[in-house]
Specification:
The complex is a heterodimer of chains A (about 1200) and B (about 300).
Chain A (H helix, E strand, L loop, with lengths): L1 H12 L2 H19 L17 H23 L1 H8 L3 H5 L5 H32 L17 H29 L2 H22 L5 H7 L4 H8 L4 H6 L6 H24 L38 H20 L2 H19 L9 E2 L3 H8 L2 H17 L1 H4 L3 H5 L5 H33 L7 H30 L2 H20 L27 H25 L8 H11 L2 H28 L5 H15 L9 E12 L4 E11 L6 E7 L6 E7 L3 E4 L7 E10 L4 E10 L18 E4 H4 L2 E2 L10 H6 L14 H4 L8 E13 L3 E3 L3 E8 L2 E13 L3 E5 L2 E7 L9 E7 L7 H18 L7 E7 L12 E5 L6 E2 L7 H14 L13 H17 L4 H20 L15 H19 L1 H15 L9 H10 L6 H9 L1 E17 L2 E15 L5 E3 L4 E10 L5 E11 L3 E8 L5 E4 L14 E3 L1 E2 L8
Parallel strand pairs in A: 2-11, 17-18, 18-19, 21-29
Antiparallel strand pairs in A: 1-20, 2-3, 3-8, 4-7, 4-10, 5-8, 6-7, 9-15, 11-14, 12-15, 13-14, 16-17, 21-22, 22-23, 22-26, 24-25, 24-27, 27-28
Helix pairs in contact in A: 1-6, 2-3, 2-6, 3-6, 3-7, 3-8, 4-7, 6-7, 7-8, 7-12, 8-9, 8-10, 8-14, 9-10, 9-12, 10-12, 13-19, 14-16, 14-19, 15-19, 16-19, 16-20, 16-21, 19-20, 20-21, 20-22, 22-24, 29-30, 29-31, 30-31, 31-33, 32-33, 33-34, 34-35
Chain B lengths: L2 E9 L5 E10 L2 E6 L6 H8 L7 E6 L2 E2 L4 H6 L1 E4 L11 H11 L5 H14 L15 H12 L6 E5 L7 H12 L6 E6 L2 H7 L2 E6 L2 E6 L1 H8 L3 E5 L5 H7 L2 E7 L2 E7 L9 E2 L4 H18 L1
Parallel strand pairs in B: 3-8, 3-9, 6-7, 7-8
Antiparallel strand pairs in B: 1-2, 1-4, 4-5, 9-10, 11-13, 11-14, 12-13
Helix pairs in contact in B: 3-4, 5-6
Classes of the chains: A alpha+beta (about 1200), B alpha/beta (about 300).
């Protein structure tokens, strides 16, 4: 056996491939460790680049690639003996099966260990060396060898063993490398499927176990780790990780045992096992003279076409009959189905309708498999004749040189087309099964046969080029891989323009409102551009492809020159013209007609803006008090023009000598301003659009001035990358803050991330002003341009569309092919208004307020025809919300409320005065089932709540302010939901909120804040907000919370500065909270408090049919976390729910006992008497408190075993 | 039309000189290229078959320059490489049809008839539906010649076609070759002397990249007639004899070596005169170059 190990090792150590793998691994480790090219999940912000979790994620991710190497090393040891026909020689030597197999396995396994050690070494070198280009000394912790050893032992080593076992098995029993590849793809599928499950809270356990790489288990285990934990903790060899590792290790061992049993050591290769077919009957020998028929050899164009056709079909048939091809294709299709039916859940576990556009997205998953097929089969097809050793016969045949490459290409294209047809068929099946039979054929055609097929053909040509030119199949595969990597490297180097990214043609997102919109034009040009390029490559491939046996570069060059003829030159010149011409046209559009800036330049400019103009930040400026505008939207041209005026007033006590105006920075916007009083214009800072108008007569307190504005947004040609999605063919939606001039320095333009600021040599900055900063309190969340304004607008659009803005419609009229809408708001409103235009269908309804004295409210929903699914839910949401808020907070301030759909390029809904633009993607296309969270209803209620929290009470622009608008809207909507849906839905909703909050902490880049200091952190003001407010109303009562909010509203609604802050609101909460519970205000709002509640024992004893005693042992730990997640245990003096469930007649859990108990120590025992048979029981059973392991709060209750006295 | 090879030389990147200044004039008819394994036969054949570039020299087929007018040459070429494989799971009928298309027989009817006649001619008709991959060695070679014969080539190159065939198959194959039209240049490379003896009117012997002899087999035999002597010796004596005499070949007869010695006169009485045959011509020539090479 030792002999076999030694032999296998020395064989491996003599193979150049082993060293190539080793070097590759070291290189990958180095790139992962020493550069930003490969990034792992949490890294960035405060998580260090050599934090244990980052190292682990990188290693596990790299090992997914390492699997290819493992398969190459482990698949072949036995296979090699068959292929080299040395099997009979070895098997006749006096060895036994055990020695042979064990020796081979161990020898190869040691080789893989050596190779993967390279990964670790590479990473260590990358993270410890002094690599000046990284400039990351402050992003590294002191070197810790355990941070590398731990993931190697927990992940890499078990993975290696299991993968080695399975590949060894495949190679030895399958006797074909294809079997090993197939295994690799199945394992990879396991990873992909696990990734889709991970996103679903209920399936995370499955995902953790399923993923053979252990990545799923790693993610589930660490998903709620705080920054501090990420920086310090090693991966625990327990829980999901332990079970995952044990299961796959066991499967590995099982593979080896199975192999030992099944491996046949006596019979050799399969050639001899094949029974040769005897000819069934001996045909009578033809003795007669055989006449050679007269044939014509043709070499003209029509002959070439026949040859091309015949060969293309030949290659096509060959590929589609290949087992690996069938396997990869089927695996891909299976994956599409899995994704469509299992992984299709959106937020809150809600499914979307299986529209054609959605299904084509799922089909997009197949692209990964497509790429594998293309890379693999370009190699196979180029090498086909040589692989079967038929090349010499072929190469001496009299067909023109191009025929061979062209037919290989066409054969692959036919294969691609047939895959597209297959995918289209699958897509339609998916739609039919899902009960959504409206097939959008043109969408399928565009997505599959234009976008995907086009890209694949480009890659196909590239693959053929590489294979033909390097003339080495595996180096060719390697180069394709390097090609992908190089694109990532390029973007790291700041090369961002699409024209440098082969095959990136970007059809963009599909919206059912706007279809492919304006994306189609750049998409088409980029396709032309890259096709020109690919044809050049392809022609070069034809010239230099090997025909005959000469592979020497210089001889091929000489032969290539021989092959050059008029036609080839014509094709190349033509392709060059197409490439250069379209490239020029694209450049003209992106860089001449439009402004192009890469992200580094953009950041530098923002830094310069800050350096130059920050001095003006605190300058006293007038405020807008009135706005009157004419806005003409031209959807077909994607233009708009806005003219009118802002009325400015000096509301301060100072004299203002000059007005500072910040014009929109967007290069598509041009702004012309004038004043009704004498000014002198200072354009020194024109590059930033910052203009200073010195007034001939300064503005004294109370003075007003009229600023006339003339803004035009013009679309010419197309832009590079993500172009404007606000102003589109159908579904234009923009607001004043993006395009209209604003007053004074705009601190939102400053770089915010510490990393970016450091790069630009700027000090880190606070995300928001302190809660009691006087300047902050003096301005609202909508900025310091205005308090409230009077608002009037005439907005016009193409007559096929409807144009909408805040205010009440005064008049509507047509002029030519345009339609005009005059809106006017009759009360002051915040300086934040939307302008919308689309081809809408409208539903109208009214809402009668619960109090007779209040006016009727007109309700309208403007939606894209076909998106009727959830409009009734939204309508109901508006009514229920208006009722609840009016009853509990204050009357609704408008006589109208409108929802309008906009394309799903952006996923949010937003509340403007009496106007709620609502994304197509978050409410209009969800398929809400009875046990789902009704997202359209909920989002509607949330946005309606903003009419109170934001529009009635407008908060200050300081830290913690989102607790007043967003958190209160979450609370309000949650209460509306609570009164309209069963408890389970609320619980489901809160479960997702808890998950989002805990995940959000993990990805925090700077510092986690307590809720009352929240700095625009959505995971806190939305997610934690929901949880905390739900708990608050549970502890002190819904009525008390509402009473506090009503008072808060009374005191602060419809007021100008000073604006309220979270500290103000907390006073109202405190006032309604009993002394015994005052601590919860601190825990929930003022600190980051978490619980670790757990039920350790739960037993019951049946006293009678209607009397059961439940004995519970529970434990509670209360933590307070700092901004990085360092936790400190707190003294317990808390009231926490203890609950017992039974199963009702429908088999559902139902609470039979729920009461708050005062907890003062970690371990607590309870004996509770309940009236029905208990099934589950525990502490905080419906997860009102924030707990990182909510699932262990309850436990199944077992019947107590009778104690039998020993006799 | 004849084939004229002038000063052809080729050195491989690893330093092996495969062809040294080869000059040959090959007329229509069957031409035998005789040489041991590694003599440079295949290199020469592949170069003629447009599949390999020489370092220097020229090849002319009639008025075609083989090195530059490759496509034209391929139109009149039939080539059976020394070793070849086939696509697994493709029947002889389909494969031959496929190759015929690439040879320019694009008319379906004509091609069908042609393929049928070739398969019949090569006695493969009854196996036409079987995969060529499953053919025996002889059948595979017959298939090889069938594809080389598509469309009456003017130049046929068959590289070591009889290696590894059993005697019956070998005869069958040689018979097939002998039926090829007389207006065709046929080059048969082989290391089996009998192949040449039985078929060829002209021949060349090549070793270590050099042409040692060209001519008519009969004439070549005549030139060494009376100079070949044979003797049966003991195994232990072989070295001594090799030192003392010009031993051109030895073979075992009933377990005892019989040596052939090339000498103008009878070495001694223990040697018996032996009528010269082509094999002796071959071995004496090979022996010459080997000695020269060793002397260098």
């Amino acid at each position: 056996m030792l002999e076999f190990i030694r032999f296998e090792l020395s064989y491996r150590l003599n193979r150049p491939a082993t060293y190539i793998y080793l070097i590759l691994m070291i290189l990958m480790g180095f790139l992962a460790g020493g550069t930003d090219i490969v990034r792992a999940g949490g890294s960035g912000g405060k998580v260090m680049e050599n934090a244990p979790i980052v190292i682990t994620q990188l290693m596990v991710a790299m090992m997914i690639f390492g699997t290819f190497i493992t398969s190459a090393v482990m698949g072949v040891p036995v296979l090699r003996d068959f292929e080299h026909k040395t099997d009979s020689m070895i098997f006749t030597t006096p060895t036994n099966k055990f020695q042979y197999l064990t020796g081979k396995f161990i020898g190869s396994f040691i080789t893989t260990l050596i190779i993967t050690a390279g990964l670790v070494i590479g990473m260590i070198v990358g993270q410890t060396g002094d690599w000046s280009w990284m400039d990351n000394a402050d992003r590294l912790m002191p070197f810790d060898i355990m941070a590398y050893i731990n993931p190697y032992l927990v992940f890499v080593l078990p993975n290696l063993f299991f993968f080695s076992a399975i590949f060894f098995l495949g190679g030895a029993l399958g006797k074909r490398m294809v079997v090993v590849y197939a295994q690799g793809i199945i394992l990879f599928m396991g990873y992909l499927v696990a990734q889709t499950f991970i996103a679903q809270l209920d399936n995370q356990g499955t995902a953790a176990i399923l993923d053979p790489f252990g990545f799923g288990a790693l993610q589930v285990t660490t998903q709620y780790w705080t920054v501090a934990e990420q920086n310090t903790l090693y991966m625990p060899f327990s829980g999901y990780i332990l079970s995952n590792r044990l299961i796959w290790l066991a499967i590995g061992v099982a593979c080896l045992i199975f192999l030992y049993i099944r491996f046949d050591f006596n019979l050799t290769g399969n050639a001899s096992s094949k029974t040769k077919k005897k000819a069934k009957k001996m045909a009578r020998e033809d003795k007669e003279e055989i006449l050679s028929p007269v044939v014509n050899q043709l070499f003209g164009l029509s002959a070439q076409i026949t040859q091309l056709k015949s060969l293309s079909i030949f290659y096509f048939k060959w590929i589609i009959k290949q087992l690996p091809f069938i396997f990869i294709a089927l695996a891909g299709v299976a994956f599409v189905f899995i994704i469509a039916f299992v992984g299709a859940e959106g937020s809150y576990g809600i499914e979307l309708y299986m529209t054609s556009s959605r299904v084509t997205q799922f089909i997009g998953i197949f692209n990964l498999f497509f790429i594998i097929i293309i890379v693999f089969y370009t190699g196979e097809v180029v090498w086909k004749e040589r692989d079967v050793k038929m090349n010499l016969i072929y190469d001496a045949l009299p067909y023109p040189n191009y025929i061979s490459m062209a037919s290989k290409f066409l054969g692959m294209v036919l294969m691609s087309i047939s895959l597209m047809l297959l995918l289209m068929f699958c897509g339609i099946i998916i739609q039919l099964i899902s009960g959504y039979p409206e097939i959008d054929w043109s969408l399928y055609f565009t997505e599959l046969f234009i976008d995907t097929l086009g890209t694949m053909i480009l890659y196909l040509m590239l693959g053929l080029f590489i294979q033909a030119v390097v003339n080495h199949k595996f180096i060719g595969f390697g180069l394709m891989f390097i090609f992908y990597i190089s694109m990532i490297v390029m973007s790291e180097l700041g090369i961002e323009h699409t024209m440098f990214y082969f095959g990136r043609t970007g059809l963009g997102g599909y919206s059912e409102m706007n279809n492919f919109g304006h994306y189609f034009q750049p998409f088409s040009w980029l396709n032309v551009y890259w096709f020109g390029f690919a044809v050049i490559l392809y022609s070069v491939a034809i010239l230099f492809t090997v025909r005959g046996i000469d592979s020497n570069f210089f001889i091929r060059l000489k032969l290539g020159k021989q092959r050059v003829n008029g036609q080839v030159i014509m094709v190349i010149v033509f392709a060059l013209i197409v490439f250069a011409g379209s490239g020029g046209y694209i450049y003209y559009n992106t860089n001449v007609l439009n402004e192009y800036q890469n992200s580094d330049d953009g950041k530098a400019e923002r830094a310069k803006y800050e350096r130059t103009l920050k001095q003006y930040e605190t300058l006293v400026q007038p405020k807008i008090i009135g706005t009157k505008l004419d806005v003409d939207i031209f959807p077909k041209n994607r233009d708009f023009k806005a003219s009118g005026y802002f009325l400015l007033k000096n509301k301060s006590n100072d004299t203002i000598p000059a007005i500072h105006i910040q014009n929109a920075a967007d290069d598509q916007v041009s702004t012309v301003l004038s004043f009704d009083k004498g000014v002198t214009e200072d354009t020194t800072n024109n590059e930033f659009g910052y203009v200073i108008y010195t007034l001939d007569q300064p503005m004294y307190p109370g003075d007003t001035i009229k600023m006339n504005i003339d803004v035009s947004f013009t679309t010419v040609g197309f832009k590079e990358g993500g172009s404007n999605t606000d102003i589109v063919y159908n579904g234009t939606f923009f607001n004043n803050t993006q395009y209209f001039p604003s007053i004074g320095y705009n601190d939102a333009a400053e770089l915010s991330s510490d990393d970016d600021r450091k790069e630009q040599k700027l000090e880190p900055k606070e995300r928001m002003m302190e809660t009691d900063d006087p300047r902050g309190i003096a301005q609202s969340l909508f900025g310091d341009d205005a308090d409230k304004i009077t608002f009037e607008i005439v907005v016009s659009t193409d007559s096929s569309q409807i144009a909408i803005a805040p205010g009440y419609l005064q008049k509507k009229w047509n002029e030519g092919d345009r339609v005009y809408y005059h809106y006017k708001m009759d009360t002051p409103m915040v300086n934040f208004y939307s302008m919308i235009s689309a081809d809408y269908t409208v539903i109208k309804d009214t809402w009668q307020p619960p109090v007779d004295s209040l006016p009727e409210v007109a309700l309208e929903i403007y939606y894209n025809k076909g998106h009727e699914y959830n409009t009734d839910k939204m309508m109901r949401g508006m009514k229920e919300a208006l009722t609840y808020y009016t009853n509990n907070f204050s009357p609704y301030q408008f006589r109208q409320l409108r929802i309008m759909e906009f394309p799903k390029y952006r996923s949010f809904a937003q509340s403007f005065a009496n106007t709620v633009p609502f994304s197509e993607g978050i409410g209009f296309i969800q398929n809400i089932k009875t046990d789902d969270v009704d997202l359209p209803f909920y989002v509607t209620a949330h946005e309606v709540a903003h009419q109170w929290w934001g529009h009635q009470v407008t908060e200050a622009g300081v830290k913690g302010n989102a607790m007043l608008s967003e958190t209160l809207s979450q609370y309000s909507a949650l209460m509306v939901m609570k009164h309209n849906f069963p408890q389970e839905i609320i619980k489901e909703f809160l479960k997702y909120e808890l998950n989002s909050y805990l995940m959000g902490r993990t990805f925090e880049q700077k510092k986690e804040m307590p809720l009352y200091q929240v700095e625009g952190q959505g995971y806190i003001h939305y997610r934690k907000g929901s949880l905390v407010m739900y708990a608050l109303q549970d502890y002190i009562g819904e009525d008390s919370v509402n009473a506090a909010l009503k008072r808060f509203n009374q005191d602060w609604a419809f007021k100008d500065a000073p604006y309220p802050t979270s500290k103000d609101l907390l006073k109202y909460y405190r006032a309604v909270t009993p002394d015994s519970l005052q601590y919860i205000i601190k825990d929930m709002f003022e600190t980051i408090t978490l619980f670790e509640n757990k039920t350790t024992e739960a037993e019951y004893e049946e006293i009678s049919d209607s009397e059961y005693v439940v004995d519970l042992t529970v434990s509670t730990i209360k933590y307070q976390a700092d901004s990085l997640g360092n936790e400190e245990e707190q003294v317990l003096k808390d009231w926490i729910d203890i609950g017992v469930f039974t199963e009702d007649s429908k088999g559902k859990d139902s609470l039979i006992y729920l009461q708050k108990h005062k907890i003062t120590q970690e371990e607590n025992k309870f004996a509770l008497t309940v009236g029905a048979k208990p099934t589950k029981a525990g502490i905080d059973p419906i997860n009102k408190l924030i707990d990182r392991n909510p699932q262990d709060n309850t436990k199944t209750v077992d019947e107590k075993e009778e104690e039998k006295p020993e006799s | 039309m004849n084939l004229s090879i002038q000063n052809l030389s080729k050195t491989y990147p690893n330093g092996v000189q495969a062809l040294k200044n080869v000059t040959l004039d090959i007329p229509v008819g069957m031409f035998g290229l005789l040489g041991p394994n590694g003599a440079g036969k295949s290199s020469l054949m592949r170069t003629i078959a447009t599949l390999q570039e020489p370092d220097s020299g020229s090849i002319q087929l009639g008025d075609l320059n083989v090195l530059t007018q490759k496509t034209e040459v391929r139109k009149v070429l039939g080539y059976l490489p020394q070793e070849f494989g086939v696509y697994p799971k493709v029947s002889a009928l389909d494969l031959l049809d496929h190759i015929a298309v690439l040879k320019g027989i694009t008319n379906g009817k004509e091609r069908k008839a042609l393929v049928k006649s070739l398969l019949q001619k090569t006695n493969l008709w009854q196996h036409r539906k079987n995969s060529v991959g499953g053919y025996s060695g002889g059948m595979k070679q017959r298939f090889g010649i069938a594809q080389a014969l598509i469309s009456d080539p003017k130049l046929i190159i068959v590289d070591e076609p009889t290696a590894g065939l059993d005697p019956a198959e070998r005869n069958r194959f040689l018979n097939l070759l002998s039926e090829i039209g007389e207006n065709t240049v046929v080059i048969l490379s082989t290391h089996i002397v009998d192949d040449v003896k039985e078929l060829c009117t002209k021949m060349a012997i090549i070793n270590q990249g050099e042409v040692l002899l060209t001519g008519n087999p009969i004439e070549s035999i005549n030139s060494i007639e009376g100079k070949i002597w044979s003797k049966t010796i003991d195994k232990e004596e072989l070295i001594a004899y090799q030192d003392k005499y010009n031993v051109i070949s030895e073979r075992l007869i009933a377990g005892k070596p019989e040596i052939h010695v090339y000498s103008d006169s009878r070495p001694d009485d223990s040697f018996a005169p032996k009528p010269a045959d082509l094999e002796d011509v071959y071995f004496s020539k090979i022996k010459e170059t080997t000695q020269t090479a060793e002397a260098v």
